[in-house]
Amino acid sequence: MTIGHEQSYYSVSQGIAPQIAYQVSPQIMVQSSLAYQRKHYLSSSDRDGHSLTFSPSVRYFLNDHSYTSLGGYVGRDASGVDIWSNHSRGINVGYFNAFAPNWNLYCSPSYSKTDYEGIETAYGVRRSDNHFEMTTNLNYRIDAWKTNVALSFTHINNASSIDMYHYQRQQTMLTLTKNF
C-alpha cells in the first residue's frame, strides 16, 4: 500500500560508513566512524541533499564481562531546502554487563543538539532541538534454540524552539531473534 504519493518510493538514500577500532591496552579500545549519505526525494528533488557525520568513542573494559563507553558525534545535513539543513552534535555514555550466563544488560543515555539553518515561515524562528534519550536493553540467550529474547525500553524527550517538534515518547519492545 502506498500512502501520500503515487510512486513506488518516497526517497532513496545511498551511503558509506567506514569504521575503525584500535585496542590501545587490555582495558581501552578507541573507535570512530565517518558516515556519508546522499538522499534523493522522488517528488520534491529541491530537498535532495547529503549528510556527513563523524563519531568517535572510547570503551573501557571494567572486567571480562562489563564495560563503559563514552562517545559523541558531530554532523552536518545539507539540503536544498534550508529548513532541513542543520548542524548537529551529541554525546552518549554506555554501560554493558553480562551479569549471568546467557543474560546481559545495556544502558545508554544520550544528548544531542541540532540547529537548523532556515527560518520556518509559519513560526518566524529557526528550529533548534535538544534531544535526550535513555535506552535500556535486557537480553537473554536461549542456547538450545540459538535464539535471543530482548526486552528494550526507550524514553525520549525532544525539546524544540518550535512547539510542533516538542515531544516525549516511551517505547517498550520485546524482540525475538533466531540465528540459522
Q: What does the model show?
A:
Strands 1, 2, 3, 4, 5, 6, 7, 8, 9 and 10 form a ten-stranded antiparallel β-sheet that branches. The chain has no helices and ten strands. It is mainly beta and 180 residues long. The relative contact order is 0.11.
Oligomeric state of this protein: single chain
The proportion of strand residues reads: over 45%
Radius of gyration: 20 Å
Largest sheet: 10 strands, antiparallel
Cα-to-Cα separation, first versus last residue = 31 Å
Please work out how many helical segments DSSP would assign.
0
SS-derived structural category: mainly beta
Record field, number of beta strands: 10
Helix content: under 10%
Q: What is the N-to-C succession of helices and strands? A: EEEEEEEEEE
Give the overall shape.
Answer: globular
**Whole-number mean pLDDT:** 94
**Any low-confidence stretches, pLDDT <50, length ≥5?**
none
Using brief descriptors, characterize the structure shown.
180 residues; mainly beta; ten-stranded antiparallel β-sheet; 10 strands; globular
